[in-house]
Every structure is written in C-alpha cells, then in structure tokens.
Design brief:
Length: 220
C-alpha cells in the first residue's frame, strides 16, 4: 500500500510517518531526510540540494525523482511505502503516478494533515532531530529525555539549519502556490482524506489510521 502524508511544513508528516511504519510494516520514504544525508556527506548531489534547501526553495524535479526512484526500488519498499515530503508539485505527482504504474503500483491514499501557519512556525522552530537515527522531537509537545541527547539511540540532537521562521514562511508560500494543487490532482482519483493535525501525537495517529482505506483485493 502506497500512502502520501500531505501537508505544509511543520504539519507533522515526518513524525507521523515514523509512527505509522511500526504498525503498517512498510518504510517511510522521506526525500527530505535523504537529501539532508547527501548534504551532510558533501556529495556533488548534496551540494546541489544545499543550494536550494538552504534558501527554502524547492529542489528541481529531476533531482528529486532520481533520488526517490532509487529508494522506492529497494526490497523493503516492495509492498508499499509511506511517502513523506514527496511529491511537492503537480508535475512531480504525475511523474510519480507514471513511475508507480510502470511498477504495477499506485497511490492508494493521500492523507492531508491540516495545521495553521502560526502552529507550523512553532513546531518547526522548536523541532530537534537526532543526528544518529533521525528521531524527531519537539521541545514543547514531544520533548527528549535529555536536552542534548536522543532518548532512542543517545545521538546528538540538533536544530536543522533550515528550521527557522523565515524559511518556514518562504516554504509556506511555495506550498500554497505549487504544492497545495496536488490535492486537487489526487481528489479526482478519490484517494484524498483530511485530518486535523492538532492534539497529542497518539490522537493524530489514530485519525490518520482511520482515514486510510485499504485498497480493494487484487481481482487477478
């Protein structure tokens, strides 16, 4: 089952994707995490990503699709994946549909997590990420056991360079102009559900699970 977690920056897509992977037994595929890994390793591809991401701009479609396809073809994603942060434009959505069709798959569910701009800024600015395992914390809503260390692996907690109010506002404007129309693209396919992103993590997770409708059995 292939699922897209949709929503503006700071909506909680990454946090909820990690929670869902445990119960649904399919991997989270986050282009953001993969791109940040390329940046931290200083690869040529990472340098290209950094040019765009440090300014809060969208990375060109061709670069993102190349990275995404490589991950989607790995064995652990054979039975489905939870897509976090991709697609970000209608063009990417159409390219994704084409890729999945070639693989005999399709997007089964698009879950749109709704939060306000003020809430997004609060979530992003106070967000901390483990350098080791990628675990995400929030200093107010989901604080780590220690201010500087991950409670899961003991790794160092950092604030991403692009987790600032200025970058969030830039990304939100781009979201409204380029990303929000993706919902209309998938609404025509009847796979879009909207959930309230406010409240305890467990409650939001329950809402998301309730919104996901299993695909019909294969008729073959």
């Amino acid at each position: 089952m292939d699922i897209i977690l949709f929503g503006p920056p700071g909506a909680g897509k990454g946090t909820q994707a990690k929670r869902l992977t445990e119960s649904m037994k399919i991997p989270q595929i986050s282009t953001g995490d993969m791109m940040r890994a390329e940046r931290s390793q200083g690869t040529e591809l990472g340098k290209k990503f950094d040019h765009y991401m440090s300014q809060g701009l969208l990375v060109p479609d061709a670069l993102v699709l190349e990275l995404f396809e490589k991950r989607l073809r790995q064995p652990d994603a054979r039975n489905g994946a939870i897509l976090d942060g991709y697609p970000r434009t209608v063009a990417q959505a159409k390219a994704l549909d084409t890729l999945l069709e070639l693989m005999g798959r399709r997007i089964d569910s698009v879950v749109s997590i709704e939060v306000s701009l003020a809430e997004m800024i609060d979530r992003v600015v106070l967000r901390r990420t483990c350098e080791g395992c990628g675990q995400i914390y929030h200093l107010r809503y989901n604080p780590p056991p220690s201010p500087d260390a991950c409670g899961k692996c003991g790794g160092k907690l950092v604030q991403r360079a692009d987790d600032t109010e200025e970058v969030v506002r830039t990304r939100y404007q781009e979201y409204l102009e380029k990303t929000a129309p993706i919902l209309e693209h998938y609404k025509t396919k009847g796979v879009v559900k909207t959930v309230d992103g406010l409240g305890p993590l467990e409650e939001v997770e329950t809402r998301i699970k309730a919104s996901i409708v299993p695909p019909p059995p294969d008729s073959n």
